Structures
1.
Amino acid sequence: MSRKKYMLGNWKMNHGLEEIDNFLSDLDSPSSFNCFWGIAPQAIHILRMIKAKKRSPNLKVGSQNCSENDFGAFTGELAVQTLVEAGVDFTLAGHSERRSLYSESDELINAKVIKAQSENLLPVFCLGETLEERDSGKMENVLEGQLLSGLKNVDSKNIVIAYEPVWAIGTGKTATPEQADEAHAFIRKVITEKLDWDANKISILYGGSVKPANVVELLGKENIDGALVGGASLTGASFSALCKAASN
Ligand code: PGA
């Protein structure tokens, strides 16, 4: 079964207008990228990236976060309806930095995923274990808990999952392709057996220190359908290399 390949950049709280212009002018032959490729910039630059679709119509633009609420008195939040109206294609939900730095719970993340789906915004649901959890043999329990709470009552037809072991994010320590593939296979097993989803149709991305030097090996694994990339998505040259690897 061949699933669509994804290459998504998460810029986190990086890049001003000048860096964005440099990124866009350094993209190498984007018209040849044959995958779902996109960037989630800081919220204030979402419209700038959407403008770039004029030159690169296949560029997808994402939000790093969204509110679980409808419009209203929620200072500092981003309404899903507004993101969709602006032309945003996907939103991250449950990134480990949101979970750990902003105390987002599984229940909140679940509400965000459901809200995004209700407006036809593609949620990229992130999950992953810490090093301590992995080392103490709790990885499977942690992943299963995150999946069952985060994906409760979620529609399997409009979602992407991103496995991002916390110990590999921004640390330069990548999971080996075997470790990542094994975790992805476990995720497929849980969503098949416990959620009754057709796991063959669900794209699961790997995230955590992905770069041009390791992407080919990671994407070569049966259960890895793409990557969610932080640091190595910041320059046009590096991100182009990643998108090319996902296009083969
Ligand atoms: P990294 O970040 O590629 O810099 O490790 C990945 C992520 O946080 O999505």
Note: Residues 140 and 186 are 8 Å apart (CA to CA).
2.
Amino acid sequence: MKKRILSGMRPTGKLHLGHLVGALKNWSQLQDKYECFFMVADWHALMSEYKDPSRLKENIIGNVIDWISCGIDPEKSALFVQSEIPEHLELFIVFSCMTPLGWLERCPTYKEQLRELTTREVNTYAFLGYPVLQAADILLYKSEIVPVGEDQLPHLELTREIAARFNHLMKKNVFAEPQAELTPTPRLMGLDGRKMSKSYENYIGLSDTPEIVAKKVMGMFTDPKRIKRSDPGHPQVCNVHEYYRVFASPELTAKIETQCVNAQTGCTDCKKQLGDILNAYLAPIRKKRGELLKDEDMIRRILETGREKAAAVAKKTMDEVRKTVGI
Ligand code: TRP
Ligand code: SF4
């Protein structure tokens, strides 16, 4: 029997290249090896978007369309919406009872978000419990492997601790401690060299038109030491070259590197070519996306099938948990 894996994404906006390289590519490659559950984490999204949740519904459909366009195959994997499976919240409350406050207050992602997420008020009761709900997501499906980016490692560590604490307190081995399966591709930076993020306006969206992609690429930061075209460049510190490493062939990437260090090509030409490469890369995704956008009913059917698959597993685990806890 194949091992089961679960991963999730919050429907807080449109998806960009960072999601594609950082998660979706990895997800789609795991589909044959594992029994996959991919979840739209709308409760997690509500924890930061509760003041204006009006976009969540359309983001759910939009994100699932992007997932499928990027190679997530609903025939192979279960795609479902977290809030349609009530057991997530049931297991969340069970784990909440058993999780010491200190574990959550010390969590580095929590401290970082309180500091950096200045456009949202996340000093709330629920937001502190964000990793507890994530642990419930993962353990509800007894997922032993969780494909995530590096930023999620503290949540995986907490999930392991919560699983171990449950087993210890209940004197029964209900949950195995899951491992993170890190995305193999290095993290793709935004156009300005910071983390690619919607709130920084430094992303290339999967729904951007070819013109917008070309324009955004022309605005990318390059090697700051290369001022004149005759200056030799430093591809290893240039974000544009990093994109070549991810999206272009190894031969072209090596060629650009040589031309850059010998000042044989200018940054403008280098970026123009990158724009073409990204547009070629995105073309099949755009095409698929355009087709799926016309058939929202099909997306709903896919999510219904996913819900049924998820519900069966969730019920089984939660029955076991209720019995174990005695409730
Ligand atoms: N916290 C994850 C993120 O922001 C989303 C998420 C929610 C998740 N539940 C999950 C990821 C369970 C993996 C497993 O990316
Ligand atoms: Fe970067 Fe290309 Fe300019 Fe070299 S030529 S510094 S790789 S943009």
Note: The chain has two domains: 4-188+296-325, 210-289.
